[in-house]
Amino acid sequence: MGYFPFFVDLTGVPGLVAGGGTVALRKVEALLPFGAELTVVSPAFRPELENLPGLTLRRESFREEMLEGMAFVIAATDDRAVNREIARACRARKIPVNAVDDREACTFLFPALVREGPLTVGISTGGASPAAAAWLRRTIQNDLPENFGEILRCLERARPLVRARMEREADRGAFWKELLAVCLDRGGPLSEREILERLAEKEGMA
Fold it and tell me: Domains in the chain: how many in total?
């Protein structure tokens, strides 16, 4: 049936990553920008993990009681049997778990991510081909317009201005399309003054 792509706020959400190697490092680096409070447990850690700020490192083997209070878990050790045991314990406690390279043990999949300012694109092939997901991520990243993150921030700042000046939803929808098209054509955001001028033009035409 496939996997539904929830987008959730991870700010301050406690998560556990089991493993201290390259795979665990990749998962941690992907999660940290979203504000999760991560605990990483492993008998040993790559130096890059030890140098990352904002982590709680526990230099020991995984124990089931470590799941207490966790909202999600990444099982990323180099031992498939250990990852499966972690996944089993998480399922019993109804904690969402991702076991790397083991779709059957997962209750959620870790997407390939494209990030550009406020934009986040999550890509999954349902576990069929991580290589294909990585290829698609690179393709999307390369095809994004220049300064797209700045354009999105511009449109976000414009939202209260447009809501205050345009009552009809249909008018706002048409204006958003026009504003986006102008930003894409010029390859960058509009200033607040330029947005207000365009709004005034629309009001004059009403």
Answer: 2
